[in-house]
Amino acid sequence: NAGVMQNPRHLVRRRGQEARLRCSPMKGHSHVYWYRQLPEEGLKFMVYLQKENIIDESGMPKERFSAEFPKEGPSILRIQQVVRGDSAAYFCASSPPPPGVAFFGQGTRLTVV
Amino acid sequence: AQRVTQPEKLLSVFKGAPVELKCNYSYSGSPELFWYVQYSRQRLQLLLRHISRESIKGFTADLNKGETSFHLKKPFAQEEDSAMYYCALTQYNFNKFYFGSGTKLNVKP
After folding, report:
1. Among chain B residues, CA nearest to A35
2. Can you tell me the distance from the alpha carbon of B46 to that of B32, in angstroms, rounded to the nearest whole number?
3. What whole-number distance in Å separates Cα of residue B10 and Cα of residue B12?
4. Which one of A41, A48, A104, A109 makes the best mutation probe of the B interface by having the most chain B beta carbons within 10 Å?
């Protein structure tokens, strides 16, 4: 089992562009979480998804951010019209059903220039 | 509101010294508490959880509901323990994990 895979590891975007971050959960895991880590801060919960469903998106900014976890393929965190303040490390975690301990990916470091 | 507080950003100790990384939490229900560790250039990984009451790599953590604390302890620190440590809390249905801001442990030779 390769573990939770995130790509790309590093992503540079200009202001106004779109950023797409991918997360492939561990085999057999149907629960995915996205977290954001700003410099010098802890991980902040963004969204919790199961296959084809958003269960809890209370940590997602109301605009420009969206997430999906389709029946086939990886989970995608999409940020439209990126701004400098979006620069952060974005971590994905997955857990098996029923939801339990989360296993983390290595993160995607987004830099907005 | 749920919150996890790790008051120390950086903790430096000498090899062989005892170490205690502090974690305090506020939560209205019955939380599940965890310690995660991130070694240099590696992903965040689970170190231990309070319900399993295990000792992992010599680390232990006791949940103190009266003081709402879940401090991580090790009697004799090793250089390979140098890493970032995050305390985390989740509720019974694992809907989300709340993380502290992390403590960087530096074990000096």
Report:
1. B97
2. 13
3. 7
4. A104
Parallel/antiparallel/unpaired status of strands B103-108 and B10-14:
parallel
Q: Residue B39: which of B79, B99, B72 has the closest Cα?
A: B79
Read off the tokens for A14.
């200009």
Smallest Cα distance from A46 to chain B, Å: 9
Distance CA A20, CA B75 (A): 44
Per-residue pLDDT tens over the stretch A18-43? 999 999 999 988 899 999 988 777 78
Q: pLDDT by residue (tens digit) across B45-64?
A: 999 988 777 778 999 998 88
Q: Between the CA of residue A1 and those of A12, A28, A41, B27, what are the distances in Å?
A: 29, 10, 30, 34
Q: Which amino acid is at A85?
A: G
Take residue A45 and report the two structure tokens written for it: 């919960």
Encoding tokens for residue A65? 């951010």
